[in-house]
Amino acid sequence: MAKLKHNRFLDTVDEVFTYAKNLKILHLNAEGSSFDGRHMRVNGKKLKHFGTTGYLGLEQDQRLKDAAIEAIQNYGTQFPLSKSYISHPLYAELENLLDQIYERPVVISKNATIAHMAAIPVLVEDRDAILLDHQVHWSVQDAAKRLKLRGVKIELVRHNRLDLLEKKIQEISSKVNHIWYMADGVYSMYGDYSPVEHLMKLSKKYKQLHLYFDDVHGMSWKGKMGRGFVYDQLFPLSKKVVVIGTLSKTFGANGSFIVCGDIEKQQKIKTFGGPLTFSAQLDPASVGAAIAAAKIHLSTDIIQLQNKLQKKISLFKELIKQYQLPLVDENDSPVFFLATGVPETGYQLTKALMKEGFYVNMGLFPAVPSKNTGLRITLSNHNHATDIKSLAKSLKELYPVIMNQTGNTYDKLNRAFQKKIKIEKSEKKNLKFSIQTFSSIQEIDKNLWDTHFLGEALLNWEGFKFLEKSFTGNKLPENNWEFWYIKVFNSQKELIALAAFTLSIWKDDLLAKTQVSELIEQQRKTNPYQFTSKVLSLGSLFTDGLPLKVLDQENQAEIFHFLLDQLDLIMEEKGIEQIVLRDFEVSNAYQKVFQSQGYIPIQMPDLCIINELAWKSEEEYLQRLSKKSRKHFKKDIEAYQTLVTIEIVSNVNQVQLEILYQLYQNVKEKNLDLNTFLYPKKVFEQMNISRAWEFILLYPKEKIKGSSDPIGVMFCYKGNKPSYVPSLVGLNYEFNLQYQTYRQLLYESIKRAGSLDYEDVDFGISASFEKRKLGAQVLPQIAYIQAKNNFKLDYIESQIQ
Fold this sequence. Notes:
Layout: H1 9-22, E1 30-31, E2 39-42, E3 45-50, H2 62-75, H3 90-102, E4 107-109, H4 112-123, E5 129-133, H5 138-145, E6 153-157, H6 162-172, E7 179-184, H7 196-205, E8 209-214, H8 229-234, E9 241-246, E10 256-260, H9 263-272, H10 274-278, H11 284-297, H12 301-323, E11 335-341, H13 343-356, E12 358-363, E13 373-378, H14 385-405, H15 410-417, E14 433-438, H16 446-453, H17 461-470, E15 482-490, E16 495-507, H18 514-524, E17 532-538, E18 548-550, H19 556-574, E19 578-585, H20 591-596, E20 600-610, H21 618-623, H22 627-641, E21 644-649, H23 654-670, H24 681-689, E22 693-700, E23 712-717, E24 723-731, H25 736-739, H26 741-755, E25 760-765, H27 768-773, E26 777-787, H28 791-798
């Protein structure tokens, strides 16, 4: 089978960011000839700045500015020489000051990303393993993933789940030398903390466990001498602990540093930590500013700055509580994440705040799950008490208005974040639309359904009846589907929308690259349902096409909002992990609605269709092909036709059916590009008794010794015209090249469709290259996915080398 075109994660992120950029809340440019830290000018408007990571405000401290200017005057704008050979004169002073703060030597790097790239390859040995907290910073994950080339085992662990961490330690401890758990001290989105003390207890319990912390967001505003959230709790540092700190963000300058409990390992990093050796050293201005900042950290001034910030934090916390704003995590960090749930609420609230004169960040996918978006508000010593009070007041006034405008509710937020963020006082019911759900197509009038779906392959009434019979009453849970048929009515009780969904178990690596599925399939040998999810899908894994009709085009956006709300309720009630709205054209009228409600666009495999077949003769068909395709036909199909015999049958005996099922299994087991569960035999038994199905069988003319069985089969659905559907293929791979079985079956399907006067051949997905050569039009498809969390998606992505 030919390969599929897989979705690229970066394309998905680009779609989300582009949407936000078009709303002018992302990738903005600050304006003006000066900057004071308290205000920011964007698009000509002066805004109060609540998006900084310079929490203490040191980047505007005159002592740091003067030191940076003096350093440039004395040493120039840069010192263009590798630090491995020689560092400029200010470096020694900075290292000495940092040694005093941390009471041990440190290694300075240009930034935290370079620090991770320098430290991790030196610390982690080839027979070690790395366990990454799911929300650890991207720079840590990126540096760690590079070690896969050395054979280092790397896995994600759900955020702050020490029970799962301990279970994973026990699972892999006998296979590796050391286990490195990597986490942030303070997480940059929700502002929540790593359970440092509990992690140290685990480290003492398991001798193999080493801890690696990125504490750049915990620096300066926390800890004795501003040593940070992590270091202050772990002092004196164990030999099994490494902390990465920063000279930028709250420290006020530029750069980063590495502190190791094991001095020998620290020396190795300093001697030859890749980027430390080959990249430029910090410029004199950055080092000069860092020296001035370090002196502040060593003075009582740092305590005053920390206390000043904590008063602002306490004030904002008090106002949040008073105004009942939906805060996700309550602690004493300067990072506040206010839940908005669906992105559209976050987008509009961010824009509304900018209009009111406030700049805040929005936390969105992939930093947070798509339905867990929110406002990321950060405080600094630049913010005045009056600024904080006016922001809180604006939030109090804007939240209910924007929530209502975007069709959001606090009940939705509670479901999305799995906590009681706020109790809904009085949720207004949508009186404009109503819904009916059915569990079987037989509960719906056949004429009504076929009025809208007749001729759309397996999406007609009989097609869904076939699916219900095939995917119920089976032994394995993955082969038992629930069916949801939905009718939407307006206030006059008129039908305005129809849709069909299935609820089933999907493999999370369904569209992953083959090598990723191969790794996960190894795990499934002992745990068959490893990395699988309950998915509510528009349509089903057996069909292609869109079983969705909106009959009221004027109100389609409102109808979709209503329908998505209903799906959200079903998701909660049934414990569903993902909703997949699939088989849409890449450019479609619903895209804005889906993305605004937290559905992430994913590129699907292309759909292959031959339209307007108008079959009269083989010669006429060939003339419609390109010159190159005709050449392919003669070389790879026509040249083999004399070697085979074709038989078309509506049913076979049980022995033959077993053979055909085995041919299907051959293809399924070989093709991990579209990694679904094996269809149950019942599917093929239903085909065998249905008038709507037939089998195109291919035999070699010269009988194979000891066998008269077919070496290929195409399972074809011949429902209502205009579409003929070669749905599944089965092959004996031993003879595929010898007889070009797969290509022959593709052509015989086209030939059969023409002889039955079908206008179209719906080849479905996969093998688009082969189908294109036979005249198929390749149609890009897109799906929209909403997941309860990003963990599984990120895990799959982390397995790609």
